[in-house]
Design goal:
- This protein is an alpha/beta fold.
- A hairpin with a 5-residue loop joins strand 11 and strand 12.
- The longest helix has 25 residues, at about 205-230.
- It has a single domain (about 10-475), classed as Glycosidases (TIM Barrel), CATH 3.20.20.
- The chain has helices spanning about 20, 45-50, 70-85, 95-100, 110-125, 140-145, 155-170, 190-195, 205-230, 250-275, 280-285, 300-305, 355-370, 395-415, 465-475; strands at about 10-15, 90-95, 130-135, 175-180, 235-240, 245, 315, 320-325, 330-335, 340, 345-350, 355, 375-380, 420-425, 445-450, 460.
- It is globular, with a radius of gyration of 21 Å.
- It contains 15 helices and 16 strands.
- Belongs to the glycosyl hydrolase 1 family.
- Keywords: Glycosidase, Hydrolase.
- It holds the Pfam family Glyco_hydro_1.
Length: about 475
């Protein structure tokens, strides 16, 4: 399919996260962060969810985040490859513990800031617009072990100091920011975004909602700081979005899918984009066994939320979800930190995530209709087992097919009238998976020679999708063949 409706200046690029590719976990003055104590492997979430999980490094486990893909020492090479593909932007994150090793220091770590000076300048040298996530599934470990993580209101001030430091440092170099990655993922796995698991309070849902409130306030403060520093700065939220269908026309399933959407897709964005808690907040909390009176908030914080909503909605989209509350023993499927009932109309990835390009068109329309603000697809992609040939070449036609169909869906959404800012496929270079800590779950246009234990040459090799995506960008989405 040929498309020619992508606007001039559309932000084609790719996305990564500091904790999944940088490595160098104890270099440059960096402190320990949450991912540094998350073991790799398919049992990662099971281990973390144990009541005995102690946030310590266990010598019996492998910790792939310690190494990542050693981007810390390869960033010039990696950004040059992104430039060769023609990236207009590059979405990455700043590791909080590189800037404030413990998170509660008064002054930042200059060596950490100089690393990001270099990364940002390297992007700008290649005419690549940096798109920075301030906090992406990592936080200084000290803030978890000493303060109890985001359920503690003190973290608002610590985050504000971190945000002010980087926003001030890069106010003239970076236009696009996001405050928290997939903030709503805490509905299912609060460990990644909030630093909460069963062993430190996640079992009590009021802690999750308190943590969210504190993050909403912190996000509003970041918007305030950014807009005061540079009125042209655009600061967005970032949510995980799984287009959610009712299994059938049974009104019970229809109601359940509506409530599922409220709880999983909309709640966090409603607060951050609209600037106030939605009307359904009380009933949503009640369904979780939480009373509004359980949440510590005040009028000053609510005023801050109202005055400083985000400028755009960044979101990840990998798959859709199906809700069914009327049948028992339905076959289920996996997903991006959440699953659902198997959809008989869809195929699945190697990891059981259901592939649904039309769901992306629906998501774009739903978000645009609800918020009337620009939307930015900042994660999308296919995690697969890539098998390179003897020349390290990966013929990843399956990935090209996936991306082509999703880009077509974006084009159709633009025809529907949706204001789409850009598209940054996830893991544009192979990196460590957030959900399993594996290297074998690969997303990139660039193959990194490294296995799940961190062994390999770390050499970079272009996959077939590299040249395909280069053509897509060169033609501004007109040639997807």
């Amino acid at each position: 399919m040929a498309t020619n409706n992508f606007p001039k200046g559309f932000l084609w690029g790719g996305a990564t996260a500091a904790n999944q590719l940088e490595g160098a976990y104890q270099e440059g003055g960096k402190g320990l962060s949450l991912p540094d104590v998350l073991p790799g492997g398919k049992d990662r979430m099971k281990i973390i969810a144990s009541p005995d999980f102690d946030f310590k490094i266990n010598p019996d486990y492998v910790y792939p985040n310690h190494i990542g893909i050693d981007h810390y020492h390869h960033y010039k090479e990696d950004i040059a490859l992104f430039a060769e593909m023609g990236f207009k932007c590059y979405r990455f994150s700043i590791a909080w513990s590189r800037i404030f090793p413990n998170g509660d220091e008064e002054t930042p770590n200059e060596e950490g800031l100089k690393f990001y000076d270099a990364v940002i300048d390297e992007c700008l040298k290649h005419d690549i617009e940096p798109v920075i996530t301030i906090s992406h599934y990592e936080m200084p470990l000290h803030l978890i072990t000493e303060y109890g993580s985001w359920k503690n209101k003190k973290l608002i001030d610590f985050y504000e100091r971190f945000a002010r430091t980087v926003l001030t440092r890069y106010q003239d170099k970076v236009k696009y920011w996001m405050t928290f990655n997939e903030i709503n993922s805490a509905a299912h796995f609060p460990i990644m975004g909030q630093g909460l698991t069963i062993s430190n309070g996640a079992g009590d849902k009021k802690n999750v909602y308190q943590a969210w409130h504190n993050q909403f306030v912190a996000s509003a403060k970041a918007v305030k700081i950014g807009h005061e520093l540079n009125p042209d700065m655009k600061i967005g939220c970032m949510i995980l979005y799984a287009t959610t269908y009712s299994y059938d026309s049974n009104p019970k399933n229809q109601l359940a899918s509506l409530q599922d959407n409220q709880a999983n897709n909309f709640f966090c964005a409603d607060v951050q984009v609209r600037g106030h808690y939605p009307a359904y907040t009380k009933s949503l909390l009640a369904r979780q066994g939480v009373q509004l009176a359980d949440i510590d908030y005040n009028d000053e914080e609510l005023a801050l939320l109202a005055q400083y909503p985000v400028d755009y909605i960044g979101f990840s989209y990998y798959m859709s979800s199906v809700v069914d509350v009327t049948h028992e023993n339905q076959e289920t499927t996996n997903g991006n930190l959440m699953g659902g009932v198997k959809n008989p109309f869809l195929k699945s990835s190697d990891w059981g995530w259901q592939i649904d390009p039309t769901g992306l068109r629906i998501a774009l329309n739903q978000l645009s209709d609800r918020y009337q603000k620009p939307v930015f697809v900042v994660e999308n992609g296919l995690g697969a087992v890539d098998k390179p040939d003897e020349n390290h070449y990966v013929a990843d036609d399956y990935r090209i097919d996936y991306l082509r169909e999703h880009i077509e869906a974006i084009s159709q959404a633009i025809d529907d009238g949706v204001d789409v800012m850009g598209y940054t496929p996830w893991g544009c270079i192979d990196l460590v998976s957030a959900s399993t800590g594996e290297m074998s779950k690969r997303y990139g246009f660039i193959y990194v020679d490294e296995d799940d234990e961190g062994n390999g040459s770390f050499n970079r090799y272009k996959k077939k999708s590299f040249d395909w995506y280069k053509k897509v960008i060169t033609t501004n989405g007109a040639d997807l063949a």
